[in-house]
From TrEMBL:
It comes from the Bacteria. Residues 52-232 form the DUF1989 domain. The lineage of its organism: Bacteria, Pseudomonadati, Pseudomonadota, Gammaproteobacteria, Oceanospirillales. It holds the Pfam family DUF1989. This is DUF1989 domain-containing protein. InterPro entries: DUF1989.
Amino acid sequence: MKLIRQNRAPADADARKAIKPVICYPVDTLPKPDMRLYATARETLELIDTVIVEPRDASVFRVPAGHFFRIISVEGAQVGDLDLWAAGNLDERFYSGKTRALHGTHLSTGDRMWSGFPYLRPMATITWDTLDWYGFDADGGSVHDVIGTRCDPYTHHLLSGQDYHHCCHSNLTRALAAETGLTLQQTETHVHDVLNVFMCTGFTQDTHQYFMKASPVRPGDYLEFFAEIDLLGALSACPGGDCSAEHSSDTAACYPLKVEVYKPDQKALEGWCSPDSSGYSGGHGERPGC
Ligand SMILES: [Zn+2]
């Protein structure tokens, strides 16, 4: 909210402001995940891979379509920044903004992480959230947001004039570069806005600014996903730790995060198939002769 208003309200301002909102994207026609099938499949899980993410660093992991993965809090309250790509195609990546438009500001069980254009398909579906009890608090805060972006050295430099090299953006860049063999500069363009796992955020009620507060996550809590397509993931253990005070520095207490990848009994997934990319024709109303 701006403190200085340059224009007087028109005579019918109250009437214009009193119009009731409508939901931008009613989700009645959104393809629904079969949560009962996922619930059955998750009873059959076999652990096949474990990846540790060190504090103020990031690690990559791979999850085949039809498998599950968990991001787990270990040792202490810690926030994680999650990027997802289609394995083998870095151009298809998580689209935080459209996911927010479809599912709201914070994600939980049953919500999906959608890829960007021209793909726009579910990359992963959240199947369990041990923090689902939190809901929204009195400040309007909740966990697992898609409203923040990722802490980055550019904004930090803009605001402080300082260089800091272990922001989530840089952590994700280093981890993806090591995985792909691309240079840091090439890799950086593939790093994108994240799902802020375990982070507790919202907008202040007076100034509508983005805020964070200490994450309610405790060791043993986890967020679980079903991989709808073959995934390459990268997770950064944010230098903000539980994000109770500041990020983009070495001040906060930071802890590792753990990623576990699980294979379900394939018989339990009967009837499920990996989603296709968007069915839009791609014509964009092209004019003849263009
Ligand atoms: Zn961060």
